[in-house]
Amino acid sequence: MQVHSVFFFLPICPVARLKVAAIFATVNDNERMDFSMIDSMPEKARGTITLFFLAIGFLAAQSSLQDLRMEPQTPQVKSPQIAKFTALEQPIDPSEYVVGPGDIFVVSINDVEPYLDLVVVTPAGDIVIPAVGGIAVGGLTLAEANRSVLERIRRMYPTLEAYCTLYDLRKIRVGISGAINRAGYYLTTPVSRVSDLIAQAGTPLISAALDQVVIERLDGEHIACDLTRFYYEGDISQNPTLQGGDRVILPFTPAGANGDNGMRQVIVIGEVRRPGSFIYQPGLKVIDYVALAGGPTTYSSLGNIRVLRADGQEVKGPRVGILAGDIVHVRRSLRYILVGNTGYMQGILVGLNMYLAFLATR
């Protein structure tokens, strides 16, 4: 501390100023204060020094309080971490989605110190919000659950603005059995459909009767589905969403149960982009199964398609009706057989060159 800063606080008294200056000079020279010097000072000088240090302490305290008042108070807000959201085919309808244990809600309350946090529906079907308490939401639709939470918050804090909505979906456990590669139980979401579960469990067996799929609910309800109408016609009503505890059954066809696994399939081979076996759908024609196989290649001959029946009979044509167990063979065109990948003009030139070479050898 410098001596000139001391004089600012001392009374206008020449004797006191000299005494205090002498003390601080001693401190500056010896790097410590000899307190015995204070005891030997006159009463008035000691009082002046005491007032000086009290003034210094008071000013330091005032400065600290001013700093605290000027420092902005940052509210403690819990920022939810961004989750990997479930892929949805469309936004959830709040009037239809039923809330259950494991669903995650985001709750926001705008106060002097804002509150923002993620709350999970407990196994008992409640969500617990600090300073609000538990609120039963299990079994309610999303719209009803949001309304119930906001009513509770506004009843306790009528002047505050609040917001509540679904943040992420719960997982449910469903089973699948029957003519499927990997029967068992799988985790999925309440917006997943029967076809999603089948994809999780691998491909259906070739003998699966996909037009006779059954969903068994926990309450005993049975729902019949014709998945072939979904696969071939896009009928979404035949591919319902799942609920927790559902059991999906893929029946075997009578032929499949006897070991004849090909009778419910149609096989497409030859000049198509994705040869393979396809589920038999009554009413489809040859050209429809060619389209299911990815369509014809550049070198196919659609006028020369042959269909081999299960009884050995052979029919031709793209408009022929298909029966279960048929094999569709899309044959190569005559142009491809003769010239392959070469163009017509190139083929003619090659043939002409070969003919001239033959004449030259004679």
Radius of gyration (Å):
43 Å
The main sheet comes to: 5 strands, mixed
Order of helices and strands: HHHHEEEEHEEEHEEHEHEEHEEEHH
What's the number of structural domains? 4
Described by the principal axes of the CA atoms, the overall outline is: elongated
Write the layout of secondary structure elements.
Layout: H1 3-7, H2 14-30, H3 36-39, H4 43-70, E1 104-110, E2 115-120, E3 126-129, E4 133-136, H5 142-156, E5 161-168, E6 172-178, E7 184-188, H6 194-200, E8 213-216, E9 222-225, H7 227-233, E10 247-250, H8 254-257, E11 265-270, E12 276-279, H9 286-292, E13 300-308, E14 314-316, E15 327-332, H10 334-339, H11 344-360
Parallel strand pairs: 6-10, 11-15
Antiparallel strand pairs: 1-2, 1-5, 3-4, 6-7, 8-9, 8-10, 11-12, 13-14, 13-15
Helix pairs in contact: 2-4
Explained architecture:
There is one protein chain. This protein has 362 residues and is α+β, with helices and mostly antiparallel strands. It has 4 domains: 3-70; 104-168, wza like domain (wza like fold, 2-Layer Sandwich); 172-256, Roll (Outer membrane lipoprotein wza fold like); 265-339, Outer membrane lipoprotein wza fold like (Roll), CATH 3.10.560.10. The protein is 32% helix and 22% strand. The strands form 4 sheets. It has a 5-stranded mixed beta sheet, covered by helices on one side. Strands 12-11-15-13-14 form a 5-stranded mixed beta sheet. The relative contact order is 0.06. The model is unreliable at 1-21, 23-33, 68-77 and 256-262 (pLDDT under 50).
